[in-house]
Amino acid sequence: MPELPEVETVVRGLRSTLEGKKIRQFVFLSPHLQQKQPAMALRPQDYRGKRLREIRRRGKMIIFNFEGGCGLLIHLKMTGQLYLADPKQPADKHTHARMTFAGFRPELRFRDIRKFGFVSCLREPDIWQKVNSALGPEPLSVGWPEFWDLIKKHGKKRIKGWLLDQKLVAGIGNIYSDEILFRAGVRPDRPAGSLSRAEARKVFRSIRAVLRRAIELKGSSVSDFVDSTGQKGRFQTEHRVYDREGQPCRRCRLALIQRKKIAGRSSFFCPTCQK
Ligand SMILES: [Zn+2]
User: Is 201 a catalytic residue?
Assistant: First the structure.
């Protein structure tokens, strides 16, 4: 599933090309996106002629803001892709929405093989209300005092599950939680509340270091992830533990990476480097 670095990569790519453009047409190509619309949703045709003011990321979600107060809330979930395509290239059966712009040839496509993703047509205030009630602070901007406070308040959760909980910090998923905990030297099955202040501080710093490096390399492409131009990311080449069960640890070179189910997810860690 695309996590913060992948979603940030998509947002940065689209922002530089689409902000300021006017929508010519916006259509859903398959019924499931329409069926998933929340109660107070706008219709795709309401967006015609609207100028795209801003594209932002919040957690793993993408938010489009248009002039006049309408917006889109997009979640890529497992296999969603949001990218610019040449209109000459035929859209396949997994392409569920399409947006074209005035005076700009490429069209924006939402493609999603497993159909868990969504594109919600909502007014901007409704989007922010929804998003802010579902998500905790951003991991790249949360301050240390707030982070430490959240660790202590939700100390019963294992640190792996703690990092995955979008209400605590938003945007971290299975890959980056493992990579963050490896970098911090903390075992994923430790209760968050058992971390010393120094260990929590290491996790806090590792979150920033790992996410920033992953954004720099345009995310991890372990399955379907592509950026806004259809290119794969490169951070998967730097994974230290994720999906490396039974392989020698890249730091100590002695222990083999183990896999354990924690908080319902496969977690990978080095039994020597992580305490
Ligand atoms: Zn190791």
Answer: no
